[in-house]
Amino acid sequence: MNRRQWSIITGISLLALLAGALTSQWIYKVNLASDPAVKAFFSNPWQTPDGKYADTEQWQGKVLVVNFWASWCPPCVEEMPTLDALQTEFLQKNVLFVGIGIDSPSNIRQFLEMTPVSYPIIIGGIDGSAISKQMGNAQGALPYTVIINAKGKSTYSKLGKINEEELRSAIKSAL
């Protein structure tokens, strides 16, 4: 190959690299949930793993940390002890963590027997995945975390495993 051919190949490679980098930024962009999406979240008839309906009215007026997860998702499972510890840390500050399991009720019940947490877990199933998307998770990937302030406004969202300090800071900002 001559010098000109190498220059063309190098140029095309750099353009492909740049296009890939820009595309990945676009693909993984996460938006804050709109007001209608937050209202839909609160009005959804969420059920607990034991089949009872969750009283979402008790969630209103609190800072909510909503975590979409699944028992088959390794990063979801890895972050649960951190979420549990942060729930304990912020319990007296009007903060409530809610886990939405994108899984079957039986899988969630079985998982919680082995890995109990102190915050409420509700069944999301297919509807939970759709609500996750409405709340800014365009990819529908897990884990996905959203913070809703006490006034019902989304203030933070994170696709992927949470960073404890980043989440702590986002919670404090929502208070």
Structure in words:
There is one protein chain. The chain is an alpha/beta fold. The chain contains 6 helices and 5 strands, in the order ααβαβαβαββα. It has a 5-stranded mixed β-sheet, with helices on both faces.
Shape: globular
CATH class category of the largest domain: Alpha Beta
User: Portion of residues in helices?
Assistant: 40-55%
Tally of distinct domains: 2
Unreliable stretches (pLDDT < 50, length at least 5) are 16-29
**Helix/strand order, N-terminal first:** HHEHEHEHEEH
Keywords:
2 domains; five-stranded mixed beta sheet; 175 residues
Summary?
The protein is α/β, with parallel strands linked by helices. It has 6 helices and 5 strands. Strands 3-2-1-4-5 form a 5-stranded mixed beta sheet, sandwiched between helices.
How is this fold's topology laid out?
Elements: H1 3-27, H2 35-43, E1 63-69, H3 74-90, E2 95-101, H4 105-114, E3 121-123, H5 125-134, E4 144-148, E5 154-159, H6 164-174
